[in-house]
Amino acid sequence: MSESMERAQPANDRHPLPREGDRGEGHPTSRRGFLATSAAALAGLTLAPGIRLVEIAAAKPDNEPVTAKVRWGMLIDTTRCQSGCTECVSACGKENGLSEVTKPRTDAQWIRKIDLKDLKTGHALSLPMMCQHCAHPPCVDVCPTGASFKRADGIVLVDRHICIGCRYCMMACPYKARSFVHEPHTDQNPEVPRGQGCVESCTLCVHRVDRGGTPACVEACAAAGHNAMLFGDLNDAESAISKRIREVKTTQVRADLKLDLGVRYEGI
Amino acid sequence: MASAPTYVETQSRPGAFWGLLVLGGLFMLAAFAAFLHFEHSGHVVTGMDNQIVWGMPHVFAVFLIVAASGVLNVASIGSVFGKPVYKARAPLSGLLALAMMAGGLAVLAADLGRPDRLIVAMTHFNFKSIFALNMMFYSGFFAIVAAYLVTMMDRSLNKYSKIVGFLAFFWRLALTTATGSIFGFLIARTAYGSALMAPMFIIYSFAYGLAAFLIVQGSMYAWNNLKLDEGILARMKNLLAVFVGASLYFTAVMHLTSLYFARQIDYERFLLLDGGVYTAAFWLGQVLVGGILPLGLIFTAGNSQKQVIAASVLVVLGGLAQMFVTIVGGQAFPLEIFPGYAISSGFQDGIVNSYSPVLGEFALGFGGIALAFLITVIAVRVLRFLPQDDFAALKIDD
Amino acid sequence: MKSLAIAVLWGLTFAAAHAAEPGRTPLPAIAIEKPGQCVEPKDVMRRDHMKLLKHQRDKTMHEGIRTKPHSLNECVSCHASQKTGTVLGAEGFCQSCHDYAAVKPDCWDCHQPKAKPALQSQSGPSNRDLLDAMQRGRGGQEVKP
């Protein structure tokens, strides 16, 4: 139906463009040419022609603090999400140095696939669940040291330098987004320091985002051809994500809690 | 008051005394070993995981903290409400408050993921966090109760004991309100997120604190071969009955109200009917052992101090069961992230979370009790805490 | 009481005397294996490296500033031993000094002490790094796709 028609056209605003903000820089410069080459060199990604992975033009300069002008958000199309697929979960694990889940009760899981079934109608769907990066995060309210905090650009993080591992934020999170590191680790990704005794959760791949990249899960979903995840600036009215959430109905999980989430879902 | 209360030192029985110290010391050693093991290997060696994040150590710790605040009630009834019988017991009550608070906080600190960062916890405060406010209340509690003890035990400072007593009373109410609000402010889980949590914890603290006091007082009297005056016993046991009854009332109101909320019926059914160990802990532990049986024992006690002590022990056990139901039961019930949907995932979504505490967690919890025990035993041996009631003077007052 | 005080004082003196013996604690092995300047003068680093790192960590965490001069990853990539690939170990750049000073910073509980090329799996380099590497002709040695 209309759905398949939409899938046929590789419209820019349906594919998960990582950083929106390009105001239509028309002509390719040598810098962009170089970047396209180097982007292709990154981890074997194949994208449709004309789809740029990185928008350096609008990237935040390295030595300036993040501001509230930008609010990072994600849109997940649950109609494109398949029950058995765990591309996003594997990508997150690889990117952030999370070990393979051998002990599901204590191993950290920053993103997970949830299978849902409506109790009354029997309608089944599947979606990834991660930290929802609330604008009014309960985890930030309850952290005794202030380690759990919300950055100016909306990303909710744990400052592991001052986290004391009390786990109160885990009690407070309505989405069970947080994990506690139960064991010592030595194989961390240098970009993602993590260790025993602190609480952690999805960072929206802040180490990538700060350098003009996209979260690994979004990239992986696109690379696998599912295109169920879209990342972008919610404050930019012209970004693909903002346009999309204007066009179609999207919901926030547990919207009754009025936490004003950065992650929205389509098709629930 | 006709005359100031007098205190005597406890009887010297060195063999038994050292025996008590060794007993307490052994429990503390076990707790310390558990602490080292958890800190070295990480919490993977405990029964707590990403689903049940607060377990047995927290059950013991929160119980001790709540009871510590409640045990000060005995002193407050003396200074704030001016009842001389209670005034005589105020120093012991203050000591127990300090000792039990120390025990509870020690367990909490020992269970942190990063206990080496205790200094960070004391220097970085998020003032919106009720947990941070609790920490400030606990520190203030130590200072105020210590000052209170000094004003009561140093005759030259006796005139300040009333005002410091008032301060201690209101500080304690604020502290217990804050402790209850640790759970009351959480919106995420059906079991919490209720304004009723704070006053309920206050009433629980009165009951647990008085029960703990009666146990310690009874032990001290038995050690010194003294008999507690029947009038005092009657007064205190009836007060305990009032507090236990009030606790049952709050529990009933909370659950009856929840039963009216369709969105909370699932949790109530879990807790009251098919929650397995949590249902048992609630009905048998909290309600029966912690409520109905003590009431029965108190009202049939007559002059039997033993029966009153037994009732107090049951109240304490019921209190531990209540903390277990509140803290662990509240986490065991699955988070309702998508109301109306059955959910499943690789992260234990949608299922009742199981919890198998390891021995070390119990060791840690008992270590907190042992710390309170050791502080109390040493202090009552060294200083004069045993109230020698001046019966002639008290005959005139109520 | 007096004899106890004397015994304690004697014990402390004994310990202090022994501690001053040369060779009892191995001196730090500061091997500068990579050529070039450190980002700050040596005496500044010696005194203030912990302050610089602490300031930088707050800037990175709260403001997202990931510039190079005081980035811990950059320190590691330069100072990691060529042989072991890490700044830890008995002769590691960071650990040997801290062992000598009897200081145990908890940085390495979370931060990766091995320099990037020594790691098998890691995230792709930032585009900015690629850009820098190519433009400054460093041959991409530090940066592996």
Overview of the structural elements:
The complex is a heterotrimer of chains A (268), B (398) and C (145). With 268 residues, chain A is an alpha+beta fold. Chain A is built from eight helices and ten strands. In chain A, 22% of the residues lie in helices and 16% in strands. Chain A has a four-stranded mixed β-sheet. The longest helix of chain A is centred in the first third of the chain and has 12 residues. With 398 residues, chain B is mainly α. Chain B has a single domain, classed as Formate dehydrogenase/DMSO reductase fold (Up-down Bundle), CATH 1.20.1630. Chain B has 15 helices and three strands. Chain B has a two-stranded antiparallel ribbon. In chain B, helix 5 packs antiparallel against helix 7, helix 7 runs antiparallel to helix 8 and helix 9 runs antiparallel to helix 10. Chain B starts with 5 loop residues before the first strand and ends with a helix. Chain C has 145 residues and is an all-alpha fold. Chain C has six helices and no strands. In chain C, 21% of the residues are buried. Classes of the chains: A alpha+beta (268), B mainly alpha (398), C mainly alpha (145). Chains in contact: A-B, A-C. The interface between A and B is large, with 55 and 48 residues.
Tell me the strand percentage band of chain B. under 5%
CATH-assigned homologous superfamily of chain B: Formate dehydrogenase/DMSO reductase domain
Write down the CATH topology of chain B. Formate dehydrogenase/DMSO reductase fold
Please bin the fraction of helical residues of chain C.
40-55%
Q: How many helices of chain B in DSSP terms? A: 15
| Rg on CA atoms of chain C, Å | 20 Å
pLDDT averaged over residues of chain B: 91
The number of domains of chain C: 2
| C-alpha termini separation of chain C | 70 Å
Short account of what is shown:
The complex is a heterotrimer of chains A (268), B (398) and C (145). Helix content of chain A is 22%, strand content 16%. In chain A, α3 (87-96) packs across α7 (216-223).
What order do the helices and strands come in, and which of them pair?
The complex is a heterotrimer of chains A (268), B (398) and C (145).
Chain A: H1 2-8, H2 30-41, E1 72-77, H3 87-96, E2 111-118, E3 124-130, H4 138-142, E4 148-150, E5 156-158, H5 168-172, E6 179-180, E7 199-200, H6 206-209, H7 216-223, E8 229-233, H8 240-247, E9 250-251, E10 263-266
Parallel strand pairs in A: 1-10
Antiparallel strand pairs in A: 1-8, 2-3, 4-5, 6-7, 9-10
Helix pairs in contact in A: 3-7
Chain B: E1 6-8, H1 14-41, H2 56-71, H3 73-79, H4 84-87, H5 90-110, H6 118-123, H7 130-153, H8 161-184, H9 197-223, H10 230-260, H11 265-274, H12 277-299, H13 305-332, E2 341-345, H14 359-382, E3 386-388, H15 391-394
Antiparallel strand pairs in B: 1-3
Helix pairs in contact in B: 1-14, 2-5, 2-8, 2-9, 2-13, 2-14, 3-5, 3-8, 5-7, 5-14, 7-8, 8-9, 9-10, 9-13, 10-12, 10-13, 11-12, 12-13
Chain C: H1 2-19, H2 42-63, H3 72-79, H4 93-101, H5 107-110, H6 127-135
